[in-house]
Design goal:
The chain is α/β, with parallel strands linked by helices. The chain folds into six domains: 5-80 and 174-202, Rossmann fold (3-Layer(aba) Sandwich), CATH 3.40.50.2300; 83-170, PrpR receptor domain-like (Rossmann fold); 207-281, PAS domain (Beta-Lactamase), CATH 3.30.450; 291-466, 3-Layer(aba) Sandwich (Rossmann fold); 469-551, Helicase, Ruva Protein, domain 3, CATH 1.10.8; 564-603, Arc Repressor Mutant, subunit A (Orthogonal Bundle), CATH 1.10.10. A seven-stranded mixed sheet has the order 14-15-17-18-19-16-20, with helices on both faces. The radius of gyration is 27 Å and the shape is globular. It starts with a strand and ends with a helix. Pfam families: AAA_lid_14, HTH_8, PrpR_N, Sigma54_activat. InterPro entries: AAA_lid_NorR, Homeodomain-like_sf, HTH_Fis, P-loop_NTPase, Sig_transdc_resp-reg_PrpR_N, Sigma_54_int. Keywords: ATP-binding, Nucleotide-binding, Transcription, Transcription regulation.
Length: 607
């Protein structure tokens, strides 16, 4: 009896992972040992570090599959793109108002042309011959005035880099079924070879420790099993200290990473070129998405990318990612410079996401992002930032984001600005700031005065995010992008909005900007009873929005959104009261009838 084929699935996006899992259950000889999400290099990185003994073949798609081909030691199968897949995406973009181009590889370009002819659509098609070629094709599309890229994960990734909107070509269930059948047809010839391979590798995997060798460049040249990155990095950091050790000289080291302790034994090999053998005993557990340090949130690029995907924000092809990319494309000269940037906008204009996107995409990328909220900017923290030799402001590989500067009291605002301005000539990191201004006249002038003080004193450039009510022409595109994202994430099948629904959205005032647009569209999609979002349902939701605003008219200016979670409503109320008490936490806690520790705990939450 033939054994089951163990498949490692690497999906470029979440919905493909879900479909892989569901379809695999229909095949008695397929064992999907794991289905993971990894786009492009991330997918290849997963394969590099995944235990080879646990799978027989790899299943992936498009550009991600090409990257995996470069590193995989086992067969890699590709999920094809079928006619129904192509027709679904091309039908959805019929309502898009800008120039559209389709980027695809030669193996599907003829199919794309045929589907376009069947649908009587004359979309331009650029053929991509490799993932290296995709970047130039996307750049060329931007230069020719195209506004929407339809393509695989490689193309949509580069679309975000060049400030273009994008939609991902998605493979459906039938495509995945085809791929599993291909695996079963081919794998019977590899069964006997694979058995021999597993027998050869088994004796290398019995040690309880992580054992590997590393050269002077920090590259692992031998390992008995997958080595977690944290262990690899900890040993790399030891190399300068170990460089003067003689051949066969042993060393013992310890490294603390978070709550974990690494016990590291090392010995320099007796070889012509420097090589060290490491044996590491450690208990590994997954860390959180970021570290809290001296009152600052510290993100690595990987942490922030994972966090953004969990929030469905800045990932390639996502709704907010497209909004951010469109904004930053107008300021590319500023984004890719080294000068400080001030991101300003009204409530709900995604200022923090814009700042995160600058950190992730700017040239001369930094390794770490230190994020400091205005409500956390105490005298003690400012002393650390401005005068400590360990301050991230004086590090070459960091970016420091001062967000929500509107929450600073007048005194703290002035002190902060003067001290930062004084040390700014010596600062080596990238400095970003965000400021939320109010469009109500009685507070707008104060906000504008503060914004001008920041710009003049720090000599920084401003990226002002225009409120949604001033970008009515973009609402149709934003709506289609959000619908596409939700179809991809949740398996819905919405194909557009009725003309009346679009007119209602374009005539609405959007006091909470893209946050509110996202919330309204999400509610409409969740309650939709047809493939179209109707004018009747949009009108009902907008009426409910107005009722909520009227019902909160006496609460802190009436901008607390009661459609949020209870936890977020609580957070917004405390923020408002804190602002009214001139950022005095003791008075705020007393007024709200809670302890200061409770207040502090709530304010530390990141929404």
């Amino acid at each position: 009896m033939l054994q089951k084929v163990r498949v490692l699935g690497i999906a470029p996006y979440d919905s493909m992972k879900t479909t892989m899992i569901r379809i695999a259950k229909q095949f008695s000889r397929i064992e999907l040992v794991d289905a993971l999400v990894g786009d492009l290099e991330d997918g290849a990185d997963i394969v590099k570090h995944y235990d080879e003994s646990k799978y027989d073949v790899i299943l992936s798609r498009g550009g991600t599959k090409l990257y995996i081909d470069e590193v995989a030691k086992k067969p890699v199968f590709e999920i094809p793109l079928t006619y129904p897949d192509l027709m679904g995406i091309l039908k959805l973009v019929e309502g898009f108002s800008g120039k559209i181009v389709i980027l695809c590889y030669p193996n599907i370009s003829s199919d794309v042309k045929m589907v376009c002819e069947l649908l009587e659509r004359s979309y331009d098609i650029f053929t991509v011959h490799s993932w290296n070629d995709a970047r130039e094709k996307v750049k060329s599309a931007r230069d020719q005035g195209y506004q929407l890229i339809i393509g695989d994960a490689v193309s949509t990734s580069y679309a975000a880099e060049f400030g273009l909107q994008s939609m991902l070509l998605v493979s459906g269930p039938e495509s995945i079924k085809t791929a599993f059948n291909d695996i079963l047809r081919v794998y019977k010839y590899f069964d006997s070879i694979n058995t021999e391979y597993q027998n050869m590798k088994s004796f290398l995997l019995s040690a309880p420790s992580y054992d590997f060798s590393m050269n002077a460049g920090g590259e692992i040249i031998y390992s008995a099993k997958r080595i977690p990155d944290r262990i690899t990095n900890a040993c790399r950091e030891l190399l300068p200290m170990l460089s003067d050790r003689k051949a066969l000289e042993k060393s013992m080291s310890q490294k603390k990473v978070g709550k974990e302790m690494f016990f590291i034994r090392s010995v320099r090999a007796k070889m012509p070129s420097p090589v060290w053998y490491f044996s590491v005993n450690v208990s590994i557990s997954e860390t959180g998405r970021h570290t809290r340090f001296h009152g600052m949130d510290v993100f690595s690029q990987e942490d922030l990318t994972i966090y953004a995907k969990q929030k469905e924000s800045v990932h390639s092809g996502g709704f907010l990612g497209n909004v951010a990319a469109a904004t930053l494309s107008k300021h590319s000269d500023i984004v890719h410079s080294s000068m400080p940037i001030l991101v300003t906008g009204e409530k709900g204009t995604e200022k923090t996401i814009i700042a995160h996107q600058i950190f992730l995409t700017a040239s001369g990328k930094r390794d770490l992002l230190y994020q400091i909220s205005g409500s956390d900017l105490s005298a003690k923290l400012m002393d650390y930032l401005f005068y400590s030799v360990h301050s991230p402001l004086f590090s070459l590989n960091t970016c420091v984001l001062f967000k929500e500067m509107q929450y600073l009291s007048d005194n703290v605002f002035g002190d902060f600005l003067e001290q930062l301005a004084q040390i700014l000539p010596n600062v080596t990191c990238r400095v970003l700031l965000t400021y939320e201004y109010n469009h109500f006249e009685h507070t707008h002038n104060v906000d504008e005065m503060r914004i001008n003080r920041i710009k003049n004193r720090l000599k920084c450039k401003e990226i002002r995010i225009s409120p949604l009510r001033n970008n009515i022409t973009n609402i149709a595109n934003y709506a289609l992008l959000y619908i596409h994202e939700q179809n991809q994430l949740n398996g819905t099948n919405i194909i557009g909005l009725e003309p009346e629904a679009m007119e209602l959205l374009e005539s609405y005032s959007w006091p909470n900007n893209t946050n509110e647009l996202e919330r309204i569209l999400n509610e409409a999609i969740k309650t939709a009873r047809s493939p179209w979002l109707t004018g009747r349902r949009i009108r009902e939701i907008l009426r409910e929005e107005g009722t909520r605003r009227e019902s909160t008219g006496g609460l802190a200016g009436g901008d607390i959104d009661l459609s949020q979670t209870l936890e977020k409503i609580e957070y917004d109320i405390i923020r408002k009261v804190l602002e009214e008490e001139n950022m005095n936490q003791a008075r705020t806690a007393k007024r709200l009838g809670i302890g200061r520790s409770t207040l502090w705990r709530i304010l530390k939450k990141d929404f």
